[in-house]
Amino acid sequence: MQTRRLLAGAGAAAAVALGLVGTSSAQAATTNAAAVTCGNAYWPHTNDDPFGGRVSTSSPAAIHTGPYGDCTTVGHVSPGAWVEYDCYVTNDLGHTWTWVRDENNRSLGWIYDKYLDDGGSNFRCG
Fold first, then answer.
1. pLDDT in tens, the chain (126 residues)
2. CB–CB of 38/68 below 8 Å?
3. What CA–CA distances, in Å, run from 4 to 27, 55, 103, 112?
4. Which residues constitute the signal peptide according to the record (predicted)?
5. What residues are paired with 64 via a beta bridge?
6. CA angle (75, 126, 55) in 5-degree steps
7. Buried-most residue among 25, 59, 73, 106 (CB within 10 A)?
C-alpha cells in the first residue's frame, strides 16, 4: 500500500494504445444521483511522475475521460501491460485515479488506481 493511501486514510486511491478507440469531449455523467464531471478540462494534470506500473486486473482495464466509472470509456489496457503515470486525483467519492500514458508516451486517460499493481501514482495532480 502506498504512503499517500495510508495518509489519506489517516487524514480524511491486447495493448495500451491499440485498445483505444474514439475521442471524447467534456461531459457530465451521474452516479447515485450525484453529478460527476468528466473531461480533461475539469481534471487538469501535468506529467509529474517519473514512474509507472502494470495493470493488475485479470481482464482489460478501462480508460476513462474523467476519474469516475461513469465517465466515458475511451479504451482498455491489457492485463499486465506497462503504463507511465502523470499524476493522480481523488474524486468526490474518495477514490483515487491516475492519468496514464502508453510506453510511447501517448496520453491515454484516467484509470482507477485499484487496477494498477502499485496503486497508481504518488504524485498528486495540481
1. 344 433 333 332 233 333 333 333 334 444 444 578 898 778 888 899 999 999 999 999 999 999 999 999 999 999 999 999 999 999 999 999 999 999 999 999 999 999 999 999 999 998
2. yes
3. 29, 19, 25, 15
4. 1-28
5. 73, 110
6. 35
7. 73
